[in-house]
Specification:
This protein is α/β, with parallel strands linked by helices. It contains nine helices and ten strands. β5, α5 and β6 form a beta-alpha-beta unit. α2 packs parallel to α4 and α4 (88-101) packs parallel to α5 (118-126).
């Protein structure tokens, strides 16, 4: 600690990817998730190409999973995460290795911390990803006000929340124009109107992150507000919000 800090219009975290490991996840977590009537997607992480593939290989024998999301973009994890997502060759290698061992759909979660998102989205598609999720957190830093050193032990953390919304929307729209596979939009979604923006930009679905920290029912509320957005626009289904092929 500290691992979280409030920033203007958002949050910065230094949580990383601490977890119980794939074997305990299969043994302890997955059976409990089976009680819920929803798709369960495992977020997969490794510190090498081989580790990503090995985690998926073990998950392949576990029941109850709908897909895997390859975390190629965490800014506060040592030896992996954004290292893979900001290197075209490594991104392609990880995705291809995962594709080789996976029977389930693969979602590549990309970092926004690159100069141009288009070649990274295309590399993920060409290597076998079935979809792309975008964006993960932006890198940022907060300093102690009384002392001239970073608040977090590692210096930088991941910025999320409304502060990144407009930039995330731009990157999602760019990715939609670049690839033919589905794109999942992420970034500062606090209400149904925010989610609708991503869908109008061409995303097929959205993820909600930071809002859950202060409102555990945020996802349920946003889904209901999205229905209102559709009704107000004279649309009969959420999918009709989408622009481009299959949208209107």
């Amino acid at each position: 600690p500290p691992r979280l800090a409030v920033t203007p219009s958002g949050m910065i975290n230094y949580i990383g990817l601490q977890n119980v490991g794939v074997d305990r996840f299969i043994r302890e977590k997955l059976p409990k998730l089976a009680a819920y009537r929803t798709a369960v997607i495992a977020n997969v992480f490794g510190t090498s190409v081989e580790e990503y593939a090995e985690v998926i290989r073990r998950l392949e024998s576990a029941p109850g999973l709908a897909a895997y999301e390859l975390n190629l973009s965490s800014p506060n994890s040592k030896g992996g995460g954004m290292v893979f997502g900001s290197d075209l060759r490594l991104l392609a290698e990880v995705t291809a290795a995962a594709r080789k061992v996976s029977r389930r759909p693969l979602i590549a979660k990309l970092t926004p911390n690159v100069a141009d998102i288009a070649p990274f989205a295309k590399a993920a598609e060409d290597a076998g990803a079935d979809a792309i999720s975008l964006v993960n957190t932006f890198t940022g830093m907060e300093a102690e006000r009384q002392r001239a050193h970073p608040r977090f032990p590692g210096g930088v953390g991941g910025i999320s929340g409304p502060v990144i919304h407009t930039e995330a929307l731009r990157l999602v729209e760019q990715a939609v124009r670049t690839v033919r596979i589905p794109v999942i939009g992420i970034g500062g979604i606090l209400c149904g109107a925010d989610a609708a923006e991503f869908l109008r930009a061409g995303a097929v679905a959205v993820q909600v992150g930071t809002a859950n920290f202060y409102d555990p029912l945020a996802t349920v509320r946003i889904a209901r507000e999205l229905e209102v957005c559709c009704r107000d626009g004279g649309l009969h289904r959420v999918g009709n919000l989408r622009s481009g092929p299959g949208g209107r």
